[in-house]
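tool_call: predict_structure(chain=1)
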Amino acid sequence: MKKLSILAVSITAFALAACQTTTQEKPASNVNLAPAERVLMKAGEVRKIKSLRDGSERISTITMVDDKTVKWEVSDGCWGTATTDDRFAPTLSWNKCGTNPEWNTGTSSIIKKEGNIWPLMLGSKVKYTFSATSSRGRVSPNYRECEVTGVVQAEAAGKTYDAFKVSCDEKYRKRTYYYAPSEERVVLEKNYHKRRNTNEVTEFVAEMK
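tool_result:
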């Protein structure tokens, strides 16, 4: 059964980050990974994913609402929506995510997209110009530039995967994703907050039956 490249949806936007990890990045055993195409669920399909956020276990329920929107719900109460167009695109909405009283709930609107990072291969890139709106109505213009910067071996939850390293830069954050073609998903995500100098790490554990 095919897995979903958007299963590990970027649900960390605007959440406070905690910092400490032993996760490592090493040279890949296979540096000639074939380009990775997007893999999508069917409309109405539901899947559950177990992951670790800075060592704490969490369960994410992913629902394919339609061919354009995916909804995610996390066992800590955080939930929201994302576009199916690109795993690395800005999150469309988030609710009760983090402790910031203004930004733990909000929405974002993609204004412009330049390039296309799919299929994933070394050097492919995309840039998003978007606007985020907080629960109090404050608007924050932003951007997200993503590029496949390497083929590496990523360690997540005690397992190793040959993966495409996708580096994304924003105004306040730097996100690094490790997409493993063998799993057809992001298996490791690092979310660095520039102002706070903190790093949050999410590791894929398993898809639940």
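agent: Residues 25-208 form a domain with the YmcC-like fold fold (CATH 2.40.360). Proceeding to next step.
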